[in-house]
Task: structure prediction
Amino acid sequence: MSNQNLFAELIAICGKENVSNQELDRIVYSSDLASLPPLIRQMYKIQQPQYIVRPSTTGQISKIIKLAVQHKIPFTTRAGASTGNGAVIPIDGGIILDLTQMQKIIKIDPDFYQITVQPGIPWEKLNHFLKKNKLMIGIHPSSSPSATVGGFISTGGYAGIGAPKYGPIAQQIQKLKVILPDGSISDIYPPLSSLFVGAEGTLGIIVEITLQVFPLSQKISPFAFGFADIESASYFLQTILAQGVKPYHVMLFDRHFLDLSKSLGLEVPKNEFLLILALEGTEETIQAESEKIWETISDKNKLNEKFAYDEWNKRFKAELFIKRAGPSLILLEVGISLSKINHLYKNFKEISETQQIDLGFCGILGHNATMLCMPFMLTDERNGMDYLKILTFSRRLLSNAIKHGGTLYGVGLWGSSYLPYLHSQEKLRIFREIKTLRDPENLCNPGKIIDDRTPERMKPPKP
Ligand SMILES: Cc1cc2nc3c(=O)[nH]c(=O)nc-3n(C[C@H](O)[C@H](O)[C@H](O)COP(=O)(O)OP(=O)(O)OC[C@H]3O[C@@H](n4cnc5c(N)ncnc54)[C@H](O)[C@@H]3O)c2cc1C
Result:
């Protein structure tokens, strides 16, 4: 089939206004949130997509996939594109399925505390809807204004607002409807649904999601604390968790992060570390948990209440704001047990000082006393060599983090070389089997998870 025919077929499926092969769209859809210098594009041989389609129904997606398979054209799912690890980059070109039109709330069942939605609904929109129904979601990412429900599940949904109290998204999935890479449609229930959690769109496309929801919290109380070092901050957190406090959300920032925020005009405390903690529940549960906190912390660590509320209100903006100082930001996302965080942080700092690279840090608390650590480095994508240097350095950091017991969160285009250290052999075997069986031509989001495209000279050091 000629390109012209394929274009016409896509239009017949989705309508003229929902299909594009325009140069500008093809450029925009060849990146994610992070801009990439041409040097990296060349090294990874990243192509532009040929077509961008914006389906709005399950039937349309199934037809698009069948068409792609028939003509051996790669297809990549893209939702909010709020990831920065290349997971939505269509490395082999082909078709981009932009799911941002799939925002319908299909069904709400308040008696059973369940909601069924299309995958492209942003978390912020879902939260507003639930609030009107006196319900709430257990966990959502701090990128909620743009990140979608399907995107969060597909990237792992392990850390976010609500995670320490309600657990990761995998625990809240009741059912997924997925279109497998051969175009067939399946309903998948737990525990099998966990295969699609973190699959980054390589096992098919999630087209409907049923989630558990919770009664709306009566109250959320944020607190802010300052610490002189990482040891006291992590000791405080470990102690209150051991006492049974279940924070709703915890963010930790180091001095470098705070200095950057200050240079961008924000008010920041003088402490080396800032910890923002929010409790959620009823008046009584919050009172009981805050008493345990006051028993653990001294007054000198407590920062003023208004500052705590301001920081809480900025929770959706903190990480991206500092990117302005870059203008590019290379960020690693590493999950690690709280008990190992001091070691890891110091190790990061030591190697960055030896290499004379400025390294900042922010972290958010996940479930089971783990922390999602986000060491970040500023760079400028207009300077390809500097970008490459920082990207290579970030891989060194990651190898070190894995040595210290950390795991990479979000594989994308850059992390596949670390797979043997991230997933069990058994899980990788299942992944490969599904791909061989359902996607023998590797058309469904190629270059991600088990398909490592890292150029030889960029292969990371073994952890
Ligand atoms: C400021 C900021 C804060 C963030 N905070 C958090 C946080 O708290 N917790 C966290 O985990 N992450 C966070 N992230 C990372 C990112 O925003 C999340 O992982 C987000 O959930 C991704 O959703 P998305 O809709 O943007 O997905 P995309 O970036 O569009 O896609 C991500 C991956 O999922 C696949 N995909 C998307 N939709 C589907 C689908 N329906 N079916 C199959 N595959 C699909 C894509 O192919 C891709 O591989 C943050 C990012 C930023 C910029």
Summary: The pocket of flavin-adenine dinucleotide is lined by residues 32-33, 76-83, 87-88, 99, 119, 141-143, 147-148, 150-152, 154-155, 159-160, 200-201, 205-206, 319-320, 364, 445 (CB under 6 Å). The chain has three domains: 3-98, 105-215, 219-408.
